[in-house]
Design a protein that fits this description.
Order of helices and strands: HHHHHHHHHHHHHHHHHHHEE
Strand order of the largest sheet: 1-2
Radius of gyration: 24 Å
Largest sheet: 2 strands, antiparallel
Structural class: mainly alpha
Helix content: over 70%
Shape: globular
InterPro entries: EmrB-like, MFS, MFS_dom, MFS_trans_sf
Number of helices: 19
CATH topology of the largest domain: Growth Hormone, Chain: A
Number of domains: 3
Oligomer: single chain
Keywords: Cell membrane, Membrane, Transmembrane, Transmembrane helix, Transport
CATH architecture of the largest domain: Up-down Bundle
GO molecular function, one term: transmembrane transporter activity
Strand content: under 5%
CATH superfamily of the largest domain: MFS general substrate transporter like domains
Subcellular location: Cell membrane
Number of strands: 2
Protein name: MFS transporter
């Protein structure tokens, strides 16, 4: 206990930097490959459904392992876990770079994912252990740099690399950083997270894998396969049933794999609800902007990535600033301001047209990211602050799992809304065009007919995108309403020690 107390009095910044680098390359790797998928399809002669498993499989492994991270963090030391995770990630990266076949590349991505899945919950738990409540905002704000900048940089960086080099270069760039981080972790990491001798419940692992894995796969496939596909509704139904059984089992266990009783803390429960709503709304720009910019406007993937880069930079700059503001003013003020900006900019996205300038799109997207930068991390940190120290691993695991699942659900719902609106608008425009067509124009050339059809399709797709952004605006309004109920968790001085003092649900003060 004395060792941990001394570490908490003087935060282990060197160790945290090592964890930051590992988490950064792991998260960067998640979005790095998306732009390279067409090149991989060509080299290995596989179709779009098969190549998509490089992303879907990575996400599924994360969805299966993240819920188990609470058990792993409590059972093993942070040094053991990080070295194991980084070794798996490094091995997967090396194998992917040398992959002679698509099957080997897919296996390499799964190995990478098994390493990266544990890094984010582990890093968040180390941060919560290393810093007292009153300083966590600044610390978690700096941590937000990793969460925000890495996935945002991925498409821009990979777009430039794929344009000039082989897709294998994407892994070659990541490999030296992962090897360096692995070596440093062996010599520099210390153990600061408390352990308990708890047993692994195999049935819980099976139920969790089927539950979260089924939901993630089902909702992720819905946009492509359609909701009436047996594989989609079958896996969602199986996942939902397994998740209900898993939850009931955890509530009956003395040492659950994932502690659902943490939702009795009102600020944690509220922060989880807000985070779910925000994750759903946030995916609108990530999904819809590339479709609008590349498909409708014909802007190159590289320029599409550059369009989003200023927003990523602003979020990176704002993240530590937001952390300091959180320590001073609390989460409610930041969340209300941030969500208001997000709602306004999302609404303006619902008004874009064929002539909206590139500069206006950059500014609008950047201001939206500015608003988002004030919301997610302060809200999550405020919720985690109410949990007792012993439940921190469960809190971080729950947050990460909910973000994964809500992101998949949000993507599926938004894509469905866009597709349905696009189809109905296309039928309406086609009917109007036929009704207003000059009989003498009926004999137009095949090329002119094709151009007219494409123009109508683009107009219909734009209407679908606008409508979906409007729905996202309404979803963000729900988060804003919830944000007004946030209360600031009073810093509990006993939490500086590694005892199991609980911040009672009643020990909150209004801002």
């Amino acid at each position: 206990m004395s060792e941990t107390n001394s570490i908490q009095n003087k935060a282990p910044y060197g160790m945290i930097i090592i964890l930051f680098i590992g988490a950064f390359v792991a998260i960067l790797n998640e979005t790095l490959l998306n732009v390279a998928l067409p090149s991989i399809m060509e080299e290995f002669d596989v179709n779009a459904t098969a190549v998509q498993w490089l992303s879907t499989g990575y996400m599924l492994i994360n969805g299966i392992l993240i819920p188990a991270s609470a058990f792993l963090i409590l059972r093993f030391t942070n040094k053991q876990l990080f070295i194991t995770a980084m070794a798996l990630f490094t091995a997967g990266t090396l194998l992917a770079s040398l992959a002679p076949t698509f099957g080997v590349l897919l296996a390499a991505r799964m190995i990478q994912a098994s390493g990266s899945a544990i890094m984010m919950p582990l890093l968040m738990n180390v941060m919560l252990t290393a810093f007292p409540v009153e300083k966590r905002g600044t610390a978690m704000g700096t941590f937000g740099l990793v969460m925000i900048v890495a996935p945002a940089l991925g498409p821009t960086l990979s777009g430039w690399i794929v344009e000039h080099y082989s897709w294998r270069t994407l892994f070659d760039i990541v490999l030296p950083f992962s090897i360096l981080t692995l070596v440093l972790s062996v010599f520099k990491l210390k153990n600061i997270t408390p352990q308990r001798a708890i047993k692994l419940d195999i049935l819980s692992i099976v139920l969790s894998s089927i539950g979260f894995g089924g939901l993630l796969y089902g909702f992720s496939s819905a946009g492509d396969k359609g909701w009436d596909n047996p594989l989609v509704y079958g896996t969602i139904a199986a996942g939902a049933i397994a998740l209900i059984v898993f939850t009931l089992r955890q509530l009956r266990m003395d040492d659950p794999m994932l502690e659902f009783r943490i939702f009795k803390y009102p600020m944690f429960a509220l922060s989880s609800a807000i985070a779910i709503v925000i994750a759903i709304a946030m995916f609108s720009a990530m999904i819809l902007m590339p479709i609008y910019v590349q498909t409708i406007r014909g802007i190159s993937p590289m320029e599409s990535g550059l369009l989003m880069l200023p927003g990523a930079i602003v979020m990176g700059i704002m993240s530590p600033i937001t952390g300091r503001l959180f320590d001073k003013y609390g989460a409610r003020t930041l969340a209300v301001i941030g969500l208001t900006i997000t709602i306004v900019t999302t609404y303006y996205f619902s008004r874009i047209n064929m002539d909206t300038s590139y500069t206006n799109l950059v500014l609008l997207y950047t201001f939206r990211m500015f608003g988002m930068s004030m919301v997610m991390m302060p809200v999550m940190t405020n919720g985690l602050n109410q949990l007792p120290m012993k439940d921190n691993p469960h809190g971080t695991a729950m947050n990460n799992t909910l973000q994964q699942v809500s992101g998949a659900i949000g993507s599926a719902l938004l894509i469905t809304v866009m597709n349905n609106r696009t189809e109905s608008k296309a039928e309406e425009l086609a009917a109007n065009a036929m009704a207003n067509m000059d009989p003498s124009a009926a004999q137009q050339s095949a090329q002119a007919a094709a151009e007219m059809k494409q123009q109508l399709l683009n107009e219909a797709m734009l209407d679908g995108i606008n409508f979906t952004f409007f729905i996202s605006t309404l979803i963000a309004v729900i988060a804003l309403v919830l944000a007004f109920f946030i209360k600031r968790v009073k810093p509990h001085h006993a939490d500086k020690h590694v005892d199991e003092t609980v911040v009672k649900p009643s020990e909150v003060v209004t801002e």
